[in-house]
Design brief:
- The chain is mainly alpha-helical.
- Helix content is 77%, strand content 0%.
- The chain is globular.
- The relative contact order is 0.11.
């Protein structure tokens, strides 16, 4: 029962915050260079290459979030194995071909100074590594390792959500330096999500390989 509650709570939370992310992303459909996050990036909005990577990332990351939601239900996997593989490929290709390269470029110009830049680049490299290991694991027939690394990959995918939660809960313009807070928040979101994934992996026996016959 406890595991079911954890899984349902996690799924519900990601769904809610994915919807909120869609609302945030929708503001960029106007392509106004002074909208939202872009208001803090005026030094690079004139760079058409940076802007192209930004829009590619913003509009494609939602697909990663939604695709990931369908991958962790045992019932869905059992009854829709072919669909699971299709959605899984969309998730993997989206990350490795589109978002990892885009986020690497964006990370080089990240807010938060050196702390923010290094945080984003390490997050990007880790995102690619976890996803690649998940792919090679399933190709070798190691389903438990595949599922574990996909959960870790999805934990990195959802750092954007955690980042915004932490910012909305704790950032105070009157008391915090924006650049320092931003940089530390990049690391905080990554650590929080990976720790949450670790706890999930410890709580679900079939993902860790424990208690298997």
């Amino acid at each position: 029962m406890g595991i079911k509650i954890i899984k349902i709570t996690a799924l519900f939370s990601v769904v809610i915050f994915s919807i909120l992310m869609l609302k945030v992303i929708s503001q960029y459909t106007s392509f106004d260079k002074n909208t939202g996050f872009l208001a803090f990036k005026q030094q690079v909005v004139s760079n058409r290459y940076w802007m192209a990577f930004f829009y590619i990332h913003i509009f494609s990351i939602t697909l990663c979030l939604l695709a990931g939601l369908t991958q962790f239900s045992n019932r869905f996997l059992t009854e829709n194995r072919a669909l699971h593989q299709i959605i899984g490929k969309i998730y993997v290709y989206n990350i490795l071909i589109i978002n990892v390269p885009a986020c690497f470029i964006l990370g080089l110009f990240s807010n938060g100074g050196l702390i923010g830049v290094t945080g984003f680049l390490i997050q990007d490299i880790l995102w690619a590594y976890l996803t690649i290991v998940a792919v090679f694991s399933v190709k070798k027939g190691n389903i438990n390792k595949h599922r574990s690394y996909m959960i870790l990959s999805y934990a990195v995918t959802t750092t954007a959500i955690t980042f915004r939660i932490v910012k909305n809960l704790f950032y105070n313009e009157a008391h915090h330096d924006y650049e320092l807070f931003y940089g530390l928040n990049v690391w905080a979101a990554l650590i929080i999500n990976l720790f949450a994934a670790y706890l999930i992996l410890q709580k679900i026996p079939f993902l860790t390989g424990k208690n298997q016959r």
